[in-house]
Design brief:
It is a single chain. The chain is an alpha+beta fold. Helix content is 16%, strand content 43%. The protein is built from 4 helices and 12 strands; from the N terminus they run E-E-E-E-E-H-E-E-E-H-E-E-E-H-E-H. The protein has helices spanning 64-69, 126-129, 161-166, 184-199; strands at 8-18, 21-27, 40-43, 46-54, 57-63, 80-85, 104-114, 117-123, 137-140, 143-151, 154-159, 177-182. A hairpin with a 2-residue loop joins strand 10 (143-151) and strand 11 (154-159). The chain is globular and about 60 Å long.
């Protein structure tokens, strides 16, 4: 479980294909002494498991399913990525509950300056759009953000200067892809209601 509050803007060193998917190596400013083999860390919102580490870097397996559902397979050496270690009991929940299970890939439609902040509009598939809720939460490349307007399959968020400086959103342009995780609470409610409706006699 994660919060969507990014800890570090890491740098991809390599992404090497394997028979099962790929192995990604990331340079980080997170103290590697605090990272243990087997730890979960999100990379652009996708929960991955640390398989090795060395000073200033760690490597993680990327499954074939993760490559299919996210944009991680498009990463090149030198690409910046959002990193967050998993939530601990003593950690402040500054964002919202994020599972690190990406629902799909969205697209940046527009980026408009609003003072020092920027107004981003994103487009997602219809299957994801049904989970969007105005004033609700969404994970974009692992970043916890609040939706403030929705139109068809598009939604807008306001990104403050700190987030622009501290995450990959600061360099995103129209047409760029992003990993999207919808609020898990909305998905659970939909599932519960669907089961209840199926069990109710006509």
């Amino acid at each position: 479980m994660f919060t969507g509050i990014i800890e570090d803007l890491g740098t991809v060193e390599s992404l090497k294909p394997t028979d099962q998917g790929a192995v990604i190596s990331v340079h980080t400013s997170i103290p590697v002494a605090e990272i243990t083999i087997g730890d979960s860390i999100t990379v652009n919102g996708a929960c991955l498991t640390v398989i090795s580490k060395s000073p200033g870097r760690f490597a993680m397996d990327v499954s074939a399913e993760t490559l299919r559902c996210t944009g991680l397979g498009d990463l090149k050496p030198g690409a910046r990525v959002n990193l967050e270690r998993c939530l601990t009991l003593g950690k402040l929940l500054g964002g919202h509950l994020v599972s690190g299970h990406v629902d799909g890939v969205g697209r940046v439609v527009s980026v408009k300056p609003e003072g020092d902040s920027k107004l981003f509009t994103f487009e997602v598939a219809a299957a994801q759009a049904r989970y969007l809720v105005e004033k609700g939460s969404v994970g974009i490349d692992g970043i916890s953000l609040t939706i403030f307007s929705i139109k068809d399959n598009s939604f807008a968020v306001e990104v403050i200067p700190h987030t622009l400086r501290s995450t990959t959103l600061g360099s995103k342009q129209p047409g760029d892809s992003v990993n999207i995780e919808n609020d898990m609470l909305v998905k659970y409610v939909e599932k519960i209601l669907a089961v209840r409706a199926a069990a109710t006699p006509a």
